Amino acid sequence: MAYRSFREFLDALAKAGEVTRVADPVDTNLLIAEWADREMKSPGGGKALLFEKPLVNGTASKFPVAINTMGSRKRIAMTLGRESIDEIAQEIQLILKAKPPTDLREGFALLKQGIHLLHARPKKVRDAACQEIVHKIESDAGRADDFSLRDLPILKCWPKDGGRFITLPNVHTRDPETGARNVGVYRMQIFDERTTAMHWQVHKVGARHGKRYYERNEKMPVAVTLGGDPALSFSATAPLPDGLDEILFAGFLRRKSIEMVKCKTIDLEVPADVDFVLEGYVQPGEMRPEGPFGDHTGYYTAVEDYPVFHLTAITHRRDAVYPTTIVGIPPMEDFYIGDAVVRILLPVFKMNFPELVDMTLPAEGVFHNLVFVSIRKQYPYQAFKVMHGLWGMGQMMFSKYIVVVDEDCDVHNTSEVLFRLCANTDPARDTTVIKNPSDSLDHAPSEQNIGSHMGFDATRKLPGENYHRQWPELLKMTDEVKALVDALQKKTR
Ligand SMILES: Cc1cc2nc3c(=O)[nH]c(=O)nc-3n(C[C@H](O)[C@H](O)[C@H](O)COP(=O)(O)O)c2cc1C
Ligand SMILES: [Mn+2]
Q: Is 337 touching ligand 1 by the criterion CB < 6 Å?
């Protein structure tokens, strides 16, 4: 089911008992963040929180704050309008099965085609809920009216943050050469009422589009949307291959075309249903220190130069809700987002690795620090082949530690994986250390953006893998005995 608005999604969550409403005024300066952190760390991810009277500098904002709306298995499935995320993985598998692709590039081409066939292509509209209220922000000389970023209930998340940050912005840009669109979630630090930072890291598509504009020395139009159907926010965080349009993918996920409307002050289109649109531009070469920010690594990210976003207009729904999240020491809301992404894209990974059985990025690894993969091993060094393949695939390049186990090990059970890792490896024989790009946010490498990664082959060793003894058998009770004890226990209970 597609939601017509973010509010409709919140209502659906509320109906399912997934929302706690907070009617008392709560400060956007740290207090909402601390409240949300406790909620996100409660069993299963707690509830979504709707703060009806967020305080900004002592004044109640007109707009409520919604946080942790995707932060559980159930809510992330509801984000995409399904009972379970696995339904989507099955749909993608069906598309891919129609004509099994021979390689990854072909696979994604087919996926795109399939999505087109499912009528997910965006539609253009003239009237849009997101433009019910229009505030044009004029030049440096002055503004058309008094509305500004200060009117949004933007959080300060951690005590030593450099300021307030928009944490769930969908940043829309275009490649000036091909016209291809991209939407990514890149946080934005508020500098003043009409300028922010634009934190697209060097490996991201927004940064690549930016580079093209800088080379042409052209002002880069950027539109930032907040709210609307949460399927788009989800798509914008997903590490889709460069060139797979997030708007199209969101349309596929929610089984309904996204309706797009022209912006008021820039030459870009945005989804008509969103709650807020921040229209503006990035000027080639203009950089400004961004941070510190309490990041998803669990540490503060240091101050670094990033591009500056200048507002030209804010448009919004009359009844807009401000969506946000916080990141920090795991588990946090973003774990559920990342987990769903892996499960949805698993069929695509499997296409590249026929031996792949399952894969997960456990919460403790803050996404790419730790990857558990299970494979059906047929030949020597196959575990290493899978590691190298993953290290070459899009944002999987950041995977710091990859542990490969046999198919009978449940990768979602961290304790089981650690048992296999410890029991089955001889470190010198079963590990490999490689050089690869590192996540910009990783503070451990001696230099930013580059580092070493390590792979562990925790599978049972085959002949030809330098193991010259008899591989032992894993303990397992017979089914017969299990059934007998089941019956006995039932009687005594
Ligand atoms: C809550 C949240 C905040 C994020 N903040 C940033 C950020 O500030 N900068 C960044 O480059 N990526 C950030 N990301 C990750 C990107 O959204 C993600 O890598 C996405 O796939 C990028 O899309 P792209 O491949 O189209 O560039 C964030 C993700 C989440 C879930
Ligand atoms: Mn993208």
A: yes
Pocket flag, ligand 1, residue 366 (CB < 6 Å) = no
Q: How far apart are CA 134 and CA 297, in angstroms?
A: 37
Residue 141, pLDDT score: 52
Low-confidence stretches of the chain (pLDDT beneath 50): none
Length of the chain: 493
For residue 158, how far is its CA from the centre of ligand 1 (angstroms)?
19
Whether ligand 1 lies within 6 angstroms of the CB of 205 is answered as: yes
Chain centroid, CA 319 distance in Å: 26
Ligand 1 proximity of 157 Cβ (cutoff 6 Å) = no
Give the pLDDT score at 139. 57
pLDDT, position 351:
85
Q: Enter the tokens of residue 198.
A: 């634009």
pTM across the whole model:
0.93
**Closest residue to atom 18 of ligand 1, CA basis:** 237
Q: Which of 229, 245, 295, 457 is catalytic?
A: 295
User: Residue 111 and residue 99: Cα distance in Å, rounded?
Assistant: 10
Summarised one tens digit per residue, pLDDT across range 380-422 is 999 999 999 999 998 999 999 999 999 999 999 999 999 999 9
Run of H or E including 281:
strand 276-290
pLDDT at 252: 87
Q: Respond yes or no: is residue 410 known to be catalytic.
A: no
* Burial (CB count <10 Å: 0-12, 13-18, 19+), residue 283: middle
Instruction: State which residues have CB under 5 angstroms from ligand 2, the bound ion.
Output: 182, 205, 240
Both structure tokens of 433? 């250390």
| Confidence at residue 92, expressed as pLDDT on a 0 to 100 scale | 83
Contact predicate 43/54, CB 8 Å? no
Residue in this structure with the two tokens 């706690």, named with its chain if needed: 20
DSSP string of 85-134?
THHHHHHHHHHHHSS--SSHHHHHHHHHHHHHHTT---EE-S--GGGSEE
Give 183 Cα–ligand 1 centroid separation in angstroms: 10
SS (H, E, C) 361-423: CCHHHCCCCEEEEEECCCCCCHHHHHHHHHHCCHHHHHCCEEEEEECCCCCCCHHHHHHHHHH
Q: Give the whole-angstrom CA distance, residue 170 versus residue 282.
A: 15
Q: At what angle do helices 104-117 and 333-352 cross, to 10 degrees?
A: 110
Which of ligand 1's atoms lies nearest the C-alpha of 205? 27
